[in-house]
């Protein structure tokens, strides 16, 4: 079996028709939580802030459970992960009064990264037609990605015609040499396979497996922000991932296995308390802001053991900040270095939008602005109705973006269905999925 897998829209995934309603299900399997949302997409007129959305999103069912069997966005215990996925799906199905057959799944692990390919063809008739566009896109898609990597997204981000570049709509234009700049988002094959297997064992088909930061961007960015240039940083529990948008297009992805859970572990060690208590303290009192009054503001830290005779300890909020801030600074400095090597470096006034559970730490936007030297805001899902109050924050941006994604699916390019397969060997895509299941279990 080849270790280069062509991923994208499976045979069941179709871009939603602008004139039709549809029901879509989203599954965000993270390191600390699993979110399942079910929504109805209904055609609507373009909105001022979200002009590119053809549909309104009305949430029908919502579920949020603790994750298990996951680390750094990667499955480490298949049975545990499957059990929690099943639980989240059951709760959402009961709330929405539907039974799901398929879901759109977000991936945050597997060392997300971008690869750019440029392809050129000679125009046979002198004019750009749909056939010529298909031909140049196919030429770009034939570029080989690195071994051990799976393609999640294949997005044309600009066309060229002779000496002119940056063309967005080339149909009907005249020239001799026609080219495309293709952006491919890739992840480690093993991470993709095991997450896919977890969902398939829950008796669901996968309509698409997509990059978490891209979904967060679809959820929280206004169209003007994407046009002017923005980077969405999703600060998850086990991973930090980034998506860069320029001229309205998703042009770069990156990620590393460091996130809010590492802050929790620092607190558990520094305060000599249980991980669950450290997580609660972080959620309630966590801050990266230092202040003199914090030395006198004391909080109670439960003892590590179960001995009721052991007295609790008291620490100041300033002491918490001294534990939390260095780790957050480390994460943001890594983000800064990754963005410096991306197309975002060419957007000197580009905005940074923070999402994910760790973005809820008090003062993190100001700290990020100082380290990244950019305007920074916290991003929350835009344009969704029916979301429960608990799901309107930045921690649920990825799941919300999965519900928006069918409206952006038409931007993707993959090989025609009759040729979409693993790169070597016999059998189609779904046959290979079946083979993975048979060989593994």
TrEMBL record:
One Gene Ontology CC term in the entry: cytoplasmic side of plasma membrane
Membrane protein topology class: Peripheral membrane protein
UniProt keyword list: Cell cycle, Cell division, Cell membrane, Membrane
Transmembrane stretches, start-end: none
SUPFAM superfamilies tied to this protein: Actin-like ATPase domain (SSF53067)
One Pfam short name: FtsA
Domain SHS2: 24-220
Any GO BP annotation: FtsZ-dependent cytokinesis
UniProt xrefs under InterPro entries: ATPase_NBD, Cell_div_FtsA, FtsA/MreB, SHS2_FtsA
Record's subcellular location: Cell membrane
Domain of life from the UniProt record: Bacteria
SMART domains documented for this protein: FtsA
UniProt main location, coarse: membrane
Keyword Protease: no
Keyword Cell cycle: yes
Family: Belongs to the FtsA/MreB family.
Function: Cell division protein that is involved in the assembly of the Z ring. May serve as a membrane anchor for the Z ring.
Self-association and partners: Self-interacts. Interacts with FtsZ.
Record's protein name: Cell division protein FtsA
Provenance organism: Pseudolabrys taiwanensis
């Amino acid at each position: 079996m080849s270790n280069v897998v062509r991923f994208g829209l499976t045979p069941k995934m179709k871009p939603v028709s602008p004139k039709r309603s549809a029901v879509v299900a989203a599954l965000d399997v993270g390191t600390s939580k699993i979110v399942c949302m079910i929504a109805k997409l209904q055609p609507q007129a373009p909105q001022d802030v979200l002009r590119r959305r053809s549909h309104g999103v009305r949430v029908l069912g919502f579920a949020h459970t603790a994750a298990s069997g996951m680390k750094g966005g990667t499955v480490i215990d298949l049975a545990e992960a499957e059990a929690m996925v099943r639980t989240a799906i059951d709760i959402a199905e009961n709330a929405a009064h539907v039974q799901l057959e398929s879901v759109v799944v977000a991936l945050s692990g597997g060392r997300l990264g971008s690869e750019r390919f440029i392809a050129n063809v000679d125009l046979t008739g002198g004019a750009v037609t749909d056939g010529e566009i298909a031909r140049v896109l196919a030429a770009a898609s034939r570029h080989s990605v690195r071994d051990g990597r799976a393609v999640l997204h294949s997005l044309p981000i600009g066309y060229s015609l002779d000496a002119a570049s940056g063309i967005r709509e080339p149909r009907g234009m005249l020239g001799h040499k026609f080219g495309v700049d293709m952006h491919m988002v890739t992840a480690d094959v093993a991470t993709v396979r095991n997450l896919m297997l977890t969902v398939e064992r829950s008796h669901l088909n996968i309509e698409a497996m997509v990059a978490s930061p891209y979904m967060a961007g679809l959820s929280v960015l206004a169209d003007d922000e994407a046009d002017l240039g923005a980077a969405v940083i999703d600060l998850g529990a086990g991973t930090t991932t980034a998506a860069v948008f320029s001229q309205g297009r998703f042009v770069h992805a990156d990620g590393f296995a460091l996130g809010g859970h590492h802050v929790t572990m620092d607190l558990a060690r520094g305060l000599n308390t249980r991980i669950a208590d450290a997580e609660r303290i972080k959620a309630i009192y966590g801050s990266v802001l230092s202040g003199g009054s914090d030395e006198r503001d004391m909080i109670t830290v439960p003892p590590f053991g179960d001995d009721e005779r052991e007295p609790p300890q008291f620490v100041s909020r300033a002491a918490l900040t001294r534990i939390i801030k260095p780790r957050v600074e480390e994460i943001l400095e890594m983000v800064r270095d990754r963005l410096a090597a991306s197309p975002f470096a060419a957007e000197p006034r580009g905005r940074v939008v923070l999402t994910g559970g760790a973005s809820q730490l008090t003062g993190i936007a100001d700290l990020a602005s100082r380290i990244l030297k950019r305007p920074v805001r916290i991003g929350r899902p835009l344009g969704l109705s029916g979301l429960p109050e608990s799901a309107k924050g930045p921690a649920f941006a990825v799941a919300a973006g999965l519900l928006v994604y069918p409206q952006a699916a038409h931007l993707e390019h993959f090989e025609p269905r009759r040729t979409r397969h693993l790169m070597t060997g016999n059998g189609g895509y779904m046959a290979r999925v079946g083979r993975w299941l048979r060989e593994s279990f």
